[in-house]
Design brief:
249 residues, four-stranded antiparallel beta sheet, alpha/beta, 10 strands, 9 helices, globular, Rossmann fold
Length: 249
């Protein structure tokens, strides 16, 4: 039986003066799963990620990650998150220093830090950028650097918020190849790029109004035209034939 990586029970979060952003979220993600998180703007996807990483504190409900309740503002080296806006992560003078930031803060020795810099840079194909200032890079390059900074910490759970934004076709394909090779990690990915979710995830959770509205196979969930339209989403182009077949039955 697969071990639980994330388990939420009636999870709630409300920003001051607003309606609940998350309003009773119940879900479980197990070891090795590749899960996509979809939903319209304002559905609560990023908020859910910030709760899982301990950046925000729930107003109510339970949130357990790797069998331990999440303690707000406490670093968990098993969990790594690539933020939607790379400027939130790239803070050092060079790419090399940015990738080293996490491993250094984990207390690793210099030899191990250098190994992790090399391994993550080799994986992403950005070795030639290591001595460049991050703010001189293209948006796509910055996104890969941000990913490397997280991969260098070797987390067991990798969370990614809109990872294909700013990526051209070449870098998008490179990211897909990187994720395909992560057989030993659990992935939780929020994206409006539904074709990307289809390629990288074996399960999808649809979130809107702060609740889970659907949970299942990406092809089954995202080929349901009525469901997608109800939640302000469109059936991915590659699933249109499946959608037509479903509607002819």
């Amino acid at each position: 039986m697969a071990a639980e990586v994330i388990k939420t029970t009636n999870l709630n979060y409300t920003y001051p003066g607003q309606k609940p952003t998350l309003d009773g979220v119940n879900m479980t993600i197990n070891t090795g799963e590749k899960v996509g998180l979809v939903g319209p703007n304002g559905a609560g996807k990023t908020t859910l990620f910030l709760l899982i990483t301990g950046i925000l504190k729930p107003n109510a409900g339970q949130l357990v990650v790797f069998d331990q309740p999440v303690i707000p503002n406490t670093f968990n080296p098993k969990v790594g998150m690539v933020f939607q806006h790379t400027a939130d992560q790239l803070i050092n003078p060079t790419v090399r220093e940015d990738i080293a930031f996490g491993p250094h803060n984990m207390g690793l020795d210099e030899e191990e830090v250098n190994r992790r810099i090399k391994d993550s840079a080799d994986l992403a194909g950005i070795q030639h950028l290591l001595d460049r200032p991050p703010h001189h890079l293209s948006a796509g390059e910055q996104r890969l650097v941000a990913l490397c900074g997280i991969l260098a910490m070797e987390p067991c759970l990798l969370i990614m918020d809109e990872p294909t934004s700013d990526l051209d076709i070449r870098y998008r394909r490179r990211l897909i190849k990187i994720l395909e090779g992560m057989q030993d990690k659990t992935l939780f990915i929020a994206s409006h790029d539904l074709e990307f979710i289809l390629e990288t995830c074996s399960r999808v959770i649809l979130l809107e109004g702060g609740v889970v509205c659907a949970d299942g196979s990406p092809k089954e969930v995202m080929a349901d035209g009525s469901l997608m339209e109800k939640h302000s989403l469109e059936v991915p182009h590659s699933l249109m034939s499946e959608w037509h077949r479903h509607n002819q039955i």
